[in-house]
Amino acid sequence: MNIIDKNIDNGIPFDWGRTSSDYAKFRDIYPQQFYQKILDRNLCMAEQAVLDIGTGTGVIPRNMYQYGAKWTATDISENQIEQAKILSAGMDIDYYTVSTEDIDFPDQSFDVITACQCFFYFNHETAAPKLWRMLKQEGSILILYMAWLPFEDQIAGASEKLVLKYNPDWSGAGETIHQIEMPDCYEEKFQLVYREEFLLEVPFTRESWNGRMKACRGIGASLSEGEISRWEEEHKKLLAQIAPDEFTILHYGAIAELRRK
């Protein structure tokens, strides 16, 4: 399903479903430190009902399933949900293909609603009141994000430049450490109770980093098959020149908790 947003990639259509197989293989990369930040907030644990919106291939519910929460997860892409179900075999996670703006679970269904790597995609004027309604009293929205740092990490910077060569309108480039921004429409019914940014060293091989970059919005979700093939050939040659067989990429993580008033 193509998504078009004039504020993202200069309005170029993208579809995460086009890159779901690579997404499933190469984007389950959050280190334990990332998940520990969630646990330190006493969220997504036993006896809590959690909704993960924009779940993609179910990375957050799958990796936090062991901590005992009852997970429900949604995504706009049918292909992403199909991959999530395959990867969640044996886990009691309920998946639904639906946009966040069209979610309609009963009132006060969830203790926590998580949104990882996806919060800025939503129409918040539509979503915010629905999320408030579906949360239990004093429930929380937990917004999560992780991104490589191209100006601090040489390999990440070189790979990013190559993405821009093939897709100069890609607006995911040039990340720096910053707080998660809160749209004004959340102020009436939510209170910001916690926010943090932190550094992470994420391990990769040449193959897995190539896959991670290929599964980004600027390549796999938006370019033609021919463009993707040419980019990948050039990227592999680049990594052979600048990267050892195994390495880490400097990222930053960010977390913000909004509590229901």
How would you describe this structure to a colleague?
By secondary structure, the chain is α/β, with parallel strands linked by helices. It is 32% helix and 26% strand. The protein has a 7-stranded mixed sheet with strand order 3-2-1-4-5-7-6. Helix 1 packs parallel to helix 4. The mean pLDDT is 96.
Layout of strands and helices, then pairs:
Elements: H1 20-26, H2 32-40, E1 49-53, H3 59-64, E2 70-75, H4 78-87, E3 93-97, E4 110-116, H5 124-134, E5 135-148, H6 154-166, E6 190-205, H7 206-214, H8 225-242, E7 246-260
Parallel strand pairs: 1-2, 1-4, 2-3, 4-5
Antiparallel strand pairs: 5-7, 6-7
Helix pairs in contact: 1-4, 1-7, 6-8, 7-8
Descriptive tags:
seven-stranded mixed beta sheet; 32% helix; 8 helices; alpha/beta; 261 residues
Briefly summarize what is shown:
The protein is an alpha/beta fold. It contains eight helices and seven strands; from the N terminus they run ααβαβαββαβαβααβ. The radius of gyration is 18 Å and the shape is globular.
Order of helices and strands: HHEHEHEEHEHEHHE
Rg, nearest Å: 18 Å
**Average pLDDT rating:** 96
Q: Assess the beta-strand content as a share of residues.
A: 25-35%
Tally of helical runs: 8
Helix percent band: 25-40%
Please give the alpha-carbon distance between the first and last residues. 35 Å
What class, by secondary structure content?
A: alpha/beta
Q: Low-confidence parts, pLDDT < 50 over ≥5 residues?
A: none
Largest sheet, strands/sense/barrel = 7 strands, mixed
Strand order of the largest sheet: 3-2-1-4-5-7-6
According to DSSP, the number of beta strands is: 7
Apparent shape: globular
**Oligomeric state of this protein:** single chain
